[in-house]
């Protein structure tokens, strides 16, 4: 639960990726670019015949102002580079919840990955394992818990829980993820109901209502037993590509499979985004039935961070869901800054009782530096890997992960630092804000 203070002499492996690209005399094969803006446009072009799928990933709540604030706040903080320091050998390892990781980067939980690529979450989970980045699985996945665990192999994996309405379903999911080797539980708090997302509302695009993105439910014995049905096989996958009009036509024509999936999809969404809001005292149920780290995702103020400490959780993710839930919300980086003004939070973090992570707005290696300098111990990376999955599948995700880690490593060295302990909670020394 601390930033690793490893000063051992070891040549960085991440920056070697940049050198390899120069040696090859061409951009990365799977994506054709290392520019996030170009990658986003390539994903838009790839999905031009199914633009609703792209907009589902790209879009945010309301006017998208929160998404924009997430990006602009990172731009307001400036790094102060230091010179004539021997940072030839760098090490960006970190330790979270007693486990050493090769970097502070984690893959954020993003659902419905099967709408942008036929391999969906299994491609991303396999890529994460190959690169050595922890994979956080979404409850809204288009693959089962067991299938994603198999694809992830010996990789590190956490599970993001959309908290079910019924305890028996929650217990079933906790049992399954434990058996499948998921080591931490990330409970998303800001999605008890879906946000107001005009991109999706205007086209009535909600894949769950056709049984896409609900495979955790379809393969769950407790959920399926409520309808007198056996769970779907763990290797079951939705049809590709997902075209809503095609599914509607199948349902109109009496297709039994399409009709059942649509029914179960709607029931699963009622189960995990029921509109019934949980309260702090209900965390005791999760603590009673989960033995690993318990992390709350969606914390955006010091008061809630302090309550998390009071209720004995192990970590928080400072997150506004990538701007997808509340239009006009403050940015996550500024929320992190405000949370870190709390002596109670700082003390709990220093003593190892609380781990602080952040997501929403991470786009570059410099962004990672800024987040850690402001007190984050790890960062969750989201939309860019989805664009990479869209364009290049598993290889695309691997490429994008190596790209941001190379960017981080190079930027860290050029800023005059050789490990995370030299920047962790050092914002007053290495950053200025416009």
From TrEMBL:
Top-rank taxon: Eukaryota
Domain FMN hydroxy acid dehydrogenase: 30-433
Cofactor: FMN
Binding positions for FMN per the UniProt entry: 109-111, 138, 160, 188, 297, 319, 359-363, 382-383
Active site (catalytic residues): 321
Annotated InterPro entries: Aldolase_TIM, Alpha-hydoxy_acid_DH_FMN, FMN-dep_DH, FMN_HAD, FMN_hydac_DH_AS
TM stretches of this protein: none
Binding of glyoxylate, residues: 56, 162, 197, 321, 324
Gene Ontology molecular function: any one: oxidoreductase activity
Key words, A-Z: Flavoprotein, FMN, Oxidoreductase
UniProt keyword Flavoprotein, yes or no: yes
Short name of any one Pfam family annotated for the protein: FMN_dh
Gene3D superfamilies per record: Aldolase class I
Family: Belongs to the FMN-dependent alpha-hydroxy acid dehydrogenase family.
Protein name: Oxidoreductase
């Amino acid at each position: 639960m601390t930033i690793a203070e490893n000063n051992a002499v070891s040549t960085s492996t991440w920056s070697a990726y940049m050198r390899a690209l120069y040696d090859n005399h061409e951009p990365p094969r799977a994506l054709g670019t290392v520019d996030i803006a170009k990658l986003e446009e390539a994903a838009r072009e790839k999905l031009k015949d199914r633009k609703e799928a792209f907009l589902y990933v790209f879009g945010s709540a309301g006017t998208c102002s929160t998404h924009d604030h997430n990006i602009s706040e990172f731009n307001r903080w400036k790094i102060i580079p230091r010179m004539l320091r021997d940072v030839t050998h760098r090490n960006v390892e970190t330790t979270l919840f007693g486990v050493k990781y090769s970097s502070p980067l984690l893959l954020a939980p993003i659902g419905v990955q099967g709408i942008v690529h036929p391999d969906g979450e299994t491609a991303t989970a396999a890529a994460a394992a190959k690169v050595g980045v922890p994979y956080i699985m979404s409850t809204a996945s288009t693959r089962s818990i067991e299938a994603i665990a198999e694809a992830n192999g010996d990789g590190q994996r956490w599970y993001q829980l959309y908290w079910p309405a019924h305890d028996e379903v929650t217990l079933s999911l906790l049992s399954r993820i434990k058996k499948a080797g998921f080591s931490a539980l990330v409970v998303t708090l800001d999605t008890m109901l879906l946000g107001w997302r005009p991109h999706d509302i205007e086209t009535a695009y909600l894949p769950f209502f056709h049984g896409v993105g609900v495979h955790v439910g379809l393969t769950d014995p407790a959920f399926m037993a409520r309808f007198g049905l056996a769970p779907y096989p763990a290797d079951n996958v939705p049809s590709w590509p997902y075209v809503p009009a095609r599914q509607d036509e199948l349902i109109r024509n009496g297709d039994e499979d399409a009709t059942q999936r649509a029914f179960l999809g709607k029931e699963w969404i009622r189960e995990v985004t029921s509109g019934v809001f949980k309260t702090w005292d209900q965390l005791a149920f999760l603590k009673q039935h989960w033995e690993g780290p318990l992390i709350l995702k969606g914390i955006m103020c010091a008061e809630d961070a302090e309550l998390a400490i009071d209720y004995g959780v192990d970590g928080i993710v400072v997150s506004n869901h990538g701007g997808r839930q509340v239009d006009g919300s403050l940015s996550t980086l500024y929320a992190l800054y405000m949370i870190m003004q709390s002596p109670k939070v700082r003390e709990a973090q220093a003593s190892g009782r609380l781990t602080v992570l952040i997501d929403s707005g991470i786009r570059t290696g410099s962004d990672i530096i800024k987040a850690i300098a402001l007190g984050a111990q790890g960062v969750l990376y989201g939309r860019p890997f989805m664009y990479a999955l869209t364009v290049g599948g598993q290889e695309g995700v691997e490429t994008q992960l190596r790209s941001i880690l190379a960017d981080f490593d190079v930027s860290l060295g050029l800023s005059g630092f050789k490990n995370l302990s030299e920047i962790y909670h050092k914002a007053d020394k290495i950053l200025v804000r416009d």
